[in-house]
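Entry 12.
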Amino acid sequence: MLNTMPCVANCFDYKGTILSIEKLGSGHINSTYLVATTAQKYVLQQINTAVFPNVEELMSNMLKVTRHIAKKQFASSLVATKQGKYFTEYDGKFFRMYDLVDGICIENAKTCKEMYLTGLGFGLFQKEMRNFNESLYEVIPDFHNTVKRYHNLIEAYNKDSANRAVCCQDIVDTLLKYKDYSNIIVDKISSGELPKRTVHNDAKINNLIVDVVNCKPISVIDLDTVMEGSLLYDFGDAVRSGCNSSFEDEEDVSKIYLRQDFFRALCRGFFMHTRDMLKKEEIELLALSGVILTYECALRFLTDSLNGDIYFKVAKPNHNLIRAKAQLALMQDMLKNILTLEDIVKQELNNLNL
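Predicted 3D structure (tokens):
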């Protein structure tokens, strides 16, 4: 695949002459490459059309959002093709290119400072998108509809297309016991109790470019999943992805717990930019949002395992099953300490209001 990247890159109106192209990152969905030219560096991505079948709508969303944020100097810019579009088709596959912002992309937060940066970055994204008034396509329908994710798991288990149900029985039974958590955010959005906002929907530190020296976020990246939803989706996913004591695919679940110091740092960074816009109903669910988004991710990983690993990239046998078990362990630890997490939310909000 790497051998064809120069031909793909040459479809775009980049500056300079290409010096090198190499694989970049380890995302679950898109394949990403770093393109270095004599003028600057770019990111070239193959769009996963199994996940994003309507490339026109996807890129329309991305263009609107990047242009809006770029007015505030907080996003990289898409590079047009030589025909003036913002994506190209090559050998039946779809690609896009955008500027590489000068900064650091951290794969996983290893310190409280990095977790603070995560909160600061996605809190700033919420602040910058507050006055965004354009309509966005729902590129992945019901992406954070946890009720639907719950029913998808039951459907996948009953269908058992990959003949894996027998080895998943225990975790399926356990996840189904937590059904009541699936509808909390969904119902409150539907009833109007929770405001709809423009959210990133994949709030992980590796979707930020940061300036570690000056402790500030520079740019939000990977805007594929930006859609209308709840702010709780971003905060909860940042908790899930960043405050885990171990890896997302840790096989020894005894090593997994929620890092409360990381959670506090995330809150502190996130509230720096959002405290004046948070509604009472959102504040009340901030701590629980981590539980709900972790539960949802466990449902998704297990569903994909039962379906034969057709959504998330896998690197070893039973990879999605391992991920699902890790998410379940993390969620259970969050629930065990939910009152402490709620206290941390209150403390950090109060500290900022002093």
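Annotation: The radius of gyration is 20 Å. The CA atoms of residues 6 and 23 lie 13 Å apart.
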